[in-house]
C-alpha cells in the first residue's frame, strides 16, 4: 500500500487535475478557485482561502467552502505586514505551512480573524476555533506572491503529517498559478512597453518637435496608463525654460521655477555619469534629487501624486529635456521593465529633439548659403559692369595715343595691362551670366564643324608659340542640340588652355567623335600637366594650379568653371586626366541629338 491509499484518493485525484490546469489555464481566478475547492472537497477542510499580494496588501482572491464564509471574506484586504510580522513570526513551521496554535495569539492577532463556530474540547489533537494555519505562496525565485489560509480541518483535528504533506502540494500549485499569472502579466507589459518604444522610434524622422512630443506622450501613456505623463524640452533662453511640452492623458503645466530646478538636478545627475531614471516616492519620503524643490513637492502632494519616475531626454551627457511619469498612492510602484522603458524613451526622445534641431539648423544654413550665393553673383555682376566702362575708355584712349604717335614704353604697358584687366572682366561677366542663366537656346549643331571654327582662331596662336596643333575630325557630322553661343566657349576654353599651358615644341590634338550616345571632344596636350591635388578644385571658380610654372602664365581661373557649368546645362560632362610634367587630356561629352 502506498501512503496515499490510507489517506485520500480523492485529494490526489483533485491535485492531479489541478496540476494539469495550472500549466494550461490562463484564467488565474478560475485556477485559484479550483485549488481552494480542491482543498475543501478533496482534502476535507471546511475553508480554504487564497489571497494575492497586490503591492503591500493581501487581497482575498478565491475562497472554497461555505457560501456564507465566502461572501464574508472574498475581496477582503489585509496589510501583508500584519500577517507576515504578527502571525508568521510566532508560527510553527510545518514545512512550507505556518501553524499558529490558539494559545499563542494575543488580542491583537485575534482582532479581525475569521473564527469558525466549533466547540472547544479537551482533546489535545482537536482543532481550536482560534488555531490558524497559513501557507505563504512564493514564486520559484522566492518572491512572496500570496497567502493561503485553511480552517476547519477534517474531523476537526489538527492535520496529521500526511494531511499536511498533501496540503503542501496544493499550496505549491497555488504558488505556481500565481507565478504563471505574474509572468504572463509581465510578458504582456513588456510587449506593451516595447510597442510604445517602437512607436517612439518611428518618430525619428520628424521635422517638428511639438507633434512628435504629443505622439510620444500618448504612446508612453498607452503603455503606462496609470498616471500622468509629462514631457518637456528645455529652451536655450533662461527666461523661457520650456521650449516644447506635451502630456497625457492631458498636458499639465509646470512653473518655470520647477523646470529650472529639475533641469539643474538632471544636469548634475548626468554630469555625475548617471543616466538612469530617478524614482521618487513621497510615501517613503524618498525624494532624491528633487528634495531641493519644495514647491514641486507641494504641487505633487496637491495633485495626489505620490510616486514617480523622472528621466532625462538626453544624448549622452547632454540633457535636452525630461519626461516624468507620476502615479497616485493607490497605484503600484514602477517595476524594472517600466524603469527600463522610460530610460530608453528618454534616450529616444533626446535623439529626436537633437535631430529635429539639427535639421532645422541645416535648413536655415542652406537658405543662408543660397542667399549668400545670390549675393555673390550679384556682386560679381555689378562690379564687372562698373569696371567694364572705364576699361573700355582706357583701352580706347591708349589706342588713340598709339595712333597719334605717342609711344613711350609706358603707353604699351598701359595697353597690355588694360587688355589683361579686360579679359578678367569679360570672364567675370561670362561667369555671372552663366550662373544666372536658367534656359539655353538650343539648335542642331555639328560638333566637328564647331571644333573646326574654333581651331581656325587658335592655329595662329599655336604657331606663334611653336606648338604643333592637329585637328582629328570624323568623316560624318556629329550632331548635338546645343546653344550656338555657349557651347563654342567650352571648346575654345579647352583648346586655348591646351595651347597656353604647353611649352614650345609640344603638341595639341583636338579629336571629335561620337561614342556611347555622346558627341565627344577630346583635347590632348603634352604640356605642364596638373597635379592630383590641383585636379580636385580644377573646376572651381578662381582656382589656378599651384604649379609655379603655370602661375607665370596669365589667367583668371574662371574658364573651366564656366566651361563645366555650360557642359552641365547641356546635360553633358567635362572630365580631366592629367599628370604633372607630362600633359593633360580634357574630354567634353554632350548627348547626341
Ligand atoms: P585660367 O586658364 O584662366 O587660369 P581655367 O579655369 O581655364 O583658368 O583653368 C584653371 C587652371 O587650370 C589654370 O590656371 C591652370 O593652372 C590649369 N589648367 C587648365 N588647363 C590646363 C592644361 N591644359 N594644362 C595644364 N594646366 C591647365
UniProtKB/TrEMBL annotation:
Q: Which PANTHER family match?
A: HISTIDINE KINASE 1, TWO-COMPONENT HISTIDINE KINASE
Can you provide one Gene Ontology molecular function annotated for this UniProt record? kinase activity
* UniProt superkingdom: Bacteria
Task: Please provide the record's keywords in A-Z order.
Answer: Kinase, Phosphoprotein, Transferase, Two-component regulatory system
Report the InterPro entries cross-referenced here: GAF-like_dom_sf, HATPase_C_sf, HATPase_dom, His_kinase_dom, HisK_dim/P_dom, HisK_dim/P_sf, Sensor_HK_Regulatory, Sig_transdc_His_kin-like_C
Q: Where in the cell is it found?
A: Cell membrane
Q: What is its EC number?
A: 2.7.13.3
Catalysed conversion reaction: ATP + protein L-histidine = ADP + protein N-phospho-L-histidine
- What's the protein here called? histidine kinase
Amino acid at each position: 500500500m502506498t501512503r496515499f491509499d490510507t489517506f485520500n484518493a480523492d485529494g490526489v485525484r483533485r491535485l492531479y487535475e489541478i496540476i494539469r490546469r495550472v500549466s494550461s489555464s490562463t484564467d488565474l481566478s478560475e485556477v485559484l478557485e479550483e485549488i481552494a475547492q480542491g482543498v475543501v472537497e478533496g482534502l476535507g477542510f471546511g475553508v480554504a482561502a487564497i489571497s494575492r499580494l497586490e503591492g503591500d496588501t493581501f487581497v482575498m482572491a478565491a475562497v472554497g467552502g461555505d457560501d456564507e464564509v465566502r461572501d464574508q471574506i472574498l475581496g477582503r484586504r489585509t496589510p501583508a505586514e500584519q500577517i507576515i510580522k504578527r502571525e508568521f513570526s510566532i508560527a510553527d513551521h510545518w514545512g512550507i505551512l505556518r501553524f499558529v496554535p490558539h494559545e499563542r495569539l494575543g488580542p491583537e492577532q485575534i482582532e479581525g480573524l475569521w473564527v469558525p463556530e466549533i466547540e472547544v474540547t479537551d482533546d489535545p489533537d482537536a482543532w481550536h476555533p482560534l488555531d490558524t494555519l497559513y501557507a505563504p505562496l512564493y514564486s520559484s525565485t522566492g518572491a512572496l506572491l500570496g497567502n493561503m489560509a485553511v480552517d476547519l480541518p477534517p474531523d476537526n483535528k489538527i492535520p496529521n503529517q500526511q494531511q499536511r504533506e498533501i496540503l503542501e502540494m496544493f499550496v505549491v500549485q497555488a504558488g505556481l498559478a500565481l507565478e504563471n499569472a505574474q509572468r504572463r502579466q509581465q510578458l504582456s507589459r513588456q510587449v506593451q512597453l516595447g510597442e510604445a518604444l517602437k512607436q517612439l522610434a518611428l518618430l525619428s524622422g520628424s521635422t517638428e518637435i511639438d507633434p512628435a512630443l504629443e505622439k510620444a506622450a500618448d504612446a508612453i501613456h498607452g503603455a503606462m496608463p496609470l498616471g500622468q505623463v509629462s514631457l518637456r524640452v528645455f529652451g536655450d533662453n533662461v527666461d523661457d525654460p520650456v521650449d516644447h511640452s506635451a502630456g497625457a492623458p492631458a498636458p499639465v503645466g509646470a512653473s518655470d521655477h520647477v523646470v529650472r530646478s529639475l533641469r539643474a538636478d538632471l544636469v548634475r545627475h548626468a554630469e555625475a555619469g548617471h543616466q538612469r531614471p530617478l524614482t521618487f516616492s513621497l510615501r517613503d519620503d524618498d525624494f532624491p534629487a528633487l528634495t531641493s524643490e519644495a514647491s514641486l513637492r507641494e504641487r505633487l502632494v496637491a495633485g495626489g501624486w505620490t510616486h514617480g519616475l523622472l528621466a532625462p531626454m538626453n544624448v549622452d551627457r547632454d540633457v535636452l529635456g525630461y519626461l516624468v511619469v507620476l502615479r497616485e498612492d493607490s497605484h503600484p510602484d514602477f517595476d524594472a521593465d517600466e524603469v527600463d522603458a522610460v530610460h530608453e524613451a528618454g534616450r529616444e526622445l533626446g535623439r529626436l529633439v537633437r535631430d529635429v534641431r539639427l535639421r532645422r539648423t541645416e535648413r536655415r544654413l542652406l537658405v543662408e548659403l543660397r542667399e549668400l550665393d545670390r549675393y555673390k553673383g550679384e556682386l560679381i555682376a555689378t562690379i564687372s559692369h562698373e569696371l567694364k566702362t572705364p576699361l573700355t575708355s582706357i583701352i580706347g584712349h591708349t589706342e588713340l595715343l598709339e595712333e597719334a604717335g605717342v609711344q613711350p614704353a609706358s603707353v604699351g604697358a598701359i595697353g597690355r595691362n588694360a587688355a589683361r584687366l579686360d579679359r578678367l572682366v569679360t570672364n567675370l561677366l561670362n561667369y555671372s551670366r552663366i550662373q544666372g542663366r536658367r534656359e539655353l537656346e538650343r539648335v542642331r549643331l555639328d560638333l566637328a564643324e564647331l571644333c573646326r571654327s574654333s581651331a581656325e582662331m587658335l592655329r595662329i596662336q599655336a604657331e606663334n608659340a611653336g606648338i604643333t596643333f592637329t585637328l582629328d575630325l570624323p568623316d560624318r557630322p556629329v550632331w548635338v542640340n546645343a546653344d550656338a553661343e555657349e557651347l563654342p566657349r567650352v571648346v575654345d576654353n579647352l583648346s586655348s588652355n591646351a595651347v597656353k599651358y604647353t611649352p614650345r615644341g609640344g603638341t595639341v590634338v583636338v579629336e571629335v567623335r561620337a561614342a556611347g550616345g555622346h558627341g565627344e571632344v577630346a583635347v590632348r596636350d603634352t604640356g605642364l600637366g596638373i597635379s592630383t591635388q590641383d585636379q580636385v578644385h580644377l573646376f572651381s571658380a578662381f582656382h589656378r594650379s599651384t604649379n609655379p610654372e603655370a602661375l607665370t602664365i596669365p589667367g583668371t581661373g574662371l574658364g573651366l568653371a564656366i566651361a563645366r557649368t555650360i557642359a552641365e546645362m547641356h546635360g553633358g560632362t567635362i572630365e580631366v586626366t592629367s599628370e604633372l610634367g607630362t600633359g593633360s587630356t580634357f574630354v567634353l561629352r554632350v548627348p547626341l541629338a
